[in-house]
Amino acid sequence: MDINLTALDATIFGIYILGVIGLGMYASRKGEQTKRDYFLAGDKLPWWMIGGSIIASNISSHHLVGAMGMAYSRGFIAVAMEWGAIFMGFNALLWIFLPFYIRNGFYTVPEFLHKRFGGAARTTYAVLILLTYVLVEISAVLYLGALSLHSLLDIPVLTSVVVLAVLTGLYTIIGGLRAVIWTEMLQLGVLVLGGIILTVATVDAAGGVSAVMATSENWELILPANDPDFPWTMYLGGSLCISVFYCATNQFIVQRVLASKNEWHARMGVIFADYLKFLIPLIITVPALVAPKLFPNLEKPDLLFPTLVQNLLPSGLVGLVMAGLIAAVMSHLSGAINSCTTILTMDIYLPYFSKKTSEKDAVRFGRVSGATIIVIGILCTGLFLAHSDKPVFLYLINAYGLFTPGIAAMFLLGILWKRTTHAGALTAGIMTIPLSLLIEFIFPEMPFLNRTGIVFWTCMAACVLVSLVTAPKPEAELEGLIWNRASLTLPAAEREQQRGIRNPFYWWALITAIVLFFYVKYA
Questions:
Q1: Which residues span the membrane (predicted)?
Q2: Which of 207, 248, 347, 368: disulfide with 92, CB 3.0–4.6 Å?
Q3: 3 state SS of 231
Q4: Would you say 455 and 439 are in contact if contact means Cβ atoms under 8 Å apart?
Q5: pLDDT for 30-82, tens place per residue?
Q6: Is the pLDDT of residue 367 over 60?
Q7: Distance of alpha carbon 239 from alpha carbon 233, whole angstroms
Q8: Are 453 and 243 contacting, i.e. CB atoms less than 8 angstroms apart?
């Protein structure tokens, strides 16, 4: 599938690429050579930048390409993993974890584990999360973005991978989180605009809004227990632990919250992300629901996005929608790379190799590690070439299920149960990968979200049992680290900010009610 961009398309596409790189380089000049500035943008992010950057970094080619392909083959259930995050993951971040991250002044999520348990738990998390970022986030996003560029422009996949990685890495490595956030806000706008254009064009070609509503007879958010991919039993553990991990204990997401001006901005930022998390999956899913009417026999569901672009968009809009795809790829990559460099610097390099290094040397190490991560991500992209027979989005969720059950158990029990010990947390973290592989080997036909749920509850039980037979930390050392009712409210100094319609609770209740309505109606 090869599409020849017109001069107008190429101009729009080129202006966007140059604009992102230019904005990233400009932002990099605004910061100082300190750890707080490079890794957390100087703690100056307002709520709208927090929420926007969370979603810009979250939505990527595995949504525009992967989730759209899954919606084409599986239907409305494609939004369940995204909307489920509003109920589970973002609620866990908003009402349980966020106060402890902000009030302790952490740079990274592993720092919470260090303060709550000890260095070994921190290192276990850091290793698991780095494996997840490189094998799932960076390499998968590069692969899917390159696949679409190859399908549309006939650019070799490897060439696309290298170009995307190098262009994104350039401003990310130089400018740190500030450059990432600034470019993500531009990319979010282009992504949403491009997605709306493609949705309108597809719906119009399929017969209008009536064509969309005709598919609503088959909209389901809760499927039978024997469904091979999304049984309703996934909500009992698999979806829960993946969502809690990804939204509440994941450096990739939490780093934006850590960089907030204050706790009010952090809370409102997460709630703003809820609204975007509701809207953008609809933009991605709706065209896929009506696409079978236009293209009923696609050999590869993951090729739906380039198919729609090639066949439905006029000159000029092709370049804009392609810019939207690249926006999704670059924003996700920049966020993942920046999170990797932050963890490598703050949780591995400084504690174990150079405790007394200067601020400037810490930033320098962050930049070197970023370049290394990019190279490794490019090399790992080839792993996804073997998984092209089904929507790649399914493989990504499966991969999360391999790494995340133990992480979710460590954090949930660590913050909710003061009796949890370092040995218990380590047990949960260490056993997650071997246990996941063992259950997959024994029950290969079991839906992966059910397997993930079994591993999650097994890790939880193991953590509890080990904790009960090992000595806990003295209560004095747990002050400010265990959840209580005070965690639900803002610090006294910030309560004036939430009067009237500025109260985060009202905005949270509204979006929660909207999503709950869909789940009840299409259960």
A1: 6-26, 47-71, 83-102, 123-145, 157-181, 188-212, 232-254, 275-295, 315-344, 365-386, 392-416, 423-442, 454-471, 505-522
A2: 248
A3: strand
A4: yes
A5: 666 677 777 776 678 899 999 998 888 777 666 667 778 888 888 888 888 78
A6: yes
A7: 9
A8: no
Give yes or no for a contact between 281 and 221, defined as CB atoms under 8 angstroms apart: no
Cβ–Cβ < 8 Å for 266, 110: no
| Fold of the 7-522 domain | Sodium/glucose cotransporter (1.20.1730)
Structure token digits, residue 62: 């595995």
DSSP for residue 31? S
Half-sphere exposure of 345 (CA within 13 A, CB side): 31
Phi, psi of 109 (to 5 degrees): -65, -40
- Among the residues of 295-421, which ranges form H helices? 304-312, 317-343, 350-352, 359-380, 392-416
For residue 492, report the phi and psi dihedrals to the nearest 5 degrees. Answer: -55, -35
Helix 157-206 crosses helix 317-343 at what angle (to 10 degrees)?
Answer: 130
Question: What are 198-234's pLDDT values in tens digits?
Answer: 889 999 988 888 888 888 877 888 888 888 778 888 8
Give, in order, the Cα–Cα distances in Å from 427 to each of 91, 111, 197, 404, 432: 26, 18, 49, 14, 9
Helix, strand, coil content of the chain in percent (nearest 5) = 80, 0, 20
Closest listed residue to residue 283, CA positions, set 366, 195, 365: 195
CA distances from 362 to 39, 259, 494 (A): 10, 18, 32
Q: Which two tokens stand for residue 467?
A: 């904790």
Q: pTM for the whole thing?
A: 0.86
Distance separating the N- and C-terminal Cα atoms of the chain: 38
Number of residues that make up the chain: 523
List the domain boundaries for the chain.
Answer: 7-522
Measure Cα distances from 89 to 18, 84, 277 in Å: 35, 8, 12
Nearest to 252 by CA among 137, 381, 384: 137
Tokens 């908003």 belong to 94
- The token duo for 495 is 């309560």
Q: How many CB atoms lie within 10 A of CB 262?
A: 16
Closest CA to 252 of 403, 463, 455: 403
